Amino acid sequence: MKIKFSIPLNQIKSKLIGTTLIIIGCIIIIINQTTFYIKIGFSAILIGILAILILPGRIIPKTISDAQIEGDIEVIKKLIKELNLKGNAIFLPRPSNTSEERILIPPNKSRVIKIPKNAYEKVFLTGKNKKNLGISIPPSGLKLLEKLGENGSFENINIENIDEKLQRFKEMKLLNSVCLKGKQNEWKLEITKPHLFCPRDQTLCQQYPCPTCSALLTLISRMTNNSDKRLWINNVKHNGEKVTFYLNFINKRG
Q: Beta strand 124-126 with 186-192: parallel, antiparallel or unpaired?
């Protein structure tokens, strides 16, 4: 079995820059040995060494990070299958007395959904006679969204500033492009992704989107500002790296 080794591009760049600085520093010291130029030469050599040893840092291979995400997604897929849930995701806002937002995956694919009262308290939701009402779980991108918004930039979301907030994902290289269009209760979210983990499973995207898409949708759901509207995924279409979400804001009680 052959084992292949590869060096990430940023490490190669750092080593090249560092080596170049060390060479330049040595040349300066050799050519001009005055105190001033010796200091410049040693400074260049020191910076070069730092560039080689420190700047690259430890990098987790993409395959490893993808495997971690994929493992969590597979658990959710099996759970949805075992419970025979057919409904699309409904994003529930975070009330003042709870610590997190939730995604409700109902048993049936319909926009007429009555949100169970215990949707924030339990994972497995049941009604009278133990009727299956679906599951309520945190969005997969909630932690990502919290990390990106640590400075409070994702608070007080509304229609006027939502596009500006979404562009943050592009700035962080999580997306190549993002565009949200719509009015009132009907919206279309179009995104193109770089080579990040994506299950490319249309059914799963409708029920439990991957972390990046989930973070985007959670942010969009905050436009309701805890009103009686809930963000519902109507449909999802994949076209290569482009993903389009068709969204509706439905009434709290269906």
A: unpaired
* Contact between residue 148 and residue 168 where contact means Cβ atoms under 8 Å apart: yes
Determine which of 52-61, 109-118, 159-168, 186-195 has the lowest per-residue pLDDT on average.
52-61
Residue with tokens 């995924």: 233
**Best CA proximity match to 183, nearest among 112, 105, 107, 248:** 248
| Segments making up each domain of the chain, as ranges | 9-53, 62-251
Q: What tens digit of pLDDT does each residue of 207-236 get?
A: 999 889 999 999 999 887 656 789 999 999
For residue 141, give the nearest of 220, 200, 202 by alpha carbon: 220
Secondary structure of residue 232 in the 3-state scheme: strand
89: burial class by Cβ within 10 Å (0-12, 13-18, 19+)?
buried
CA–CA distance, 26 with 45 (Å, rounded to integer):
7
Please choose, from the candidates 166, 246, 173, 161, the residue with its C-alpha nearest in 3D space to the C-alpha of residue 209: 246
Q: Tokens representing 234?
A: 């109507």
Residues 6+ apart with CB under 8 A from 215: 139, 141, 142, 144, 145, 148, 169
Contact (CB, 8 A) for 63 and 203: no
